Amino acid sequence: MKIGIFDSGIGGLTVLHQALITLPKEDYIYYADTDNVPYGIKTREEIIGYVDRAVDFLVGKGVKAIVIACNTATSTAADYVRSKYTLPILGMEPAVKPAVAKSHGKRVMVIATPVTVREEKLRALIEQVDDEHLVDLVALPGLVSFAEAGIFEGNEIEQYLRHELSDYHLANYSALILGCTHFNYFKDSYCKVFPKGISFIDGSVGTVNYLKRILTERNLLENNHGTVEYYMSGRPVYRDEELQKLSGLHMRLDKMLKL
Ligand code: DGL
After folding, report:
1. What's the CATH number for 3-92+204-257?
2. Which of 27, 111, 145, 217 has its CA 20 to 30 A from that of 171?
3. Which residues are catalytic?
């Protein structure tokens, strides 16, 4: 049985990429909801509808577990789909707690989509761990559009970041929490805009380790070949050109892992 990984678009490839490293003997289905991306500026009801359809598709394919590799979808729709199905459905949440614990009094910035930034869930989490008021929460929806357009570096990105972050004294920050899976593609640009030595915190490793634990506990680990079937809003991806684009994205993510 395969593992289903789902995102609004190419963001969740960061989780698939990590899963192929940590669990190379599993087979995967990756579902990008390209008809409806971006989720981060939609209503709760719309997002719940999209996630419901994607999860239903993956369940129909007989997957043994699903990872919602999207912070926006997790914060709005994970509880709903978990209440409908019995298979494990894992989500993603910005890793605020470990970042604050390691910040040594310096500031921490969480960047995410407007929906995630507005959600009560994330605000409550920050309130719980941020005694010293060190955490800032910033919505950067433009990065999702850049990623989906295949623009990952260059002046346009740096200018966008500098403009959106102009109210913050960036030299005070020690950690940047990537609270949207699409944001992993831009680490080289963050390095140019934030002070040297800024650490990046993203949820992929934690989520995949948790997936491994769940599969181990339920005796669901397999010895397969690490194959991936890709779907765009339910349509299979098989054209060479599209597959090459996906393999280019994996190559970029490889590079980003080293930053
Ligand atoms: N990749 C998604 C996340 O992690 C959201 C991107 C979107 O706006 O669709 O939040």
Report:
1. 3.40.50.1860
2. 145
3. 70, 180
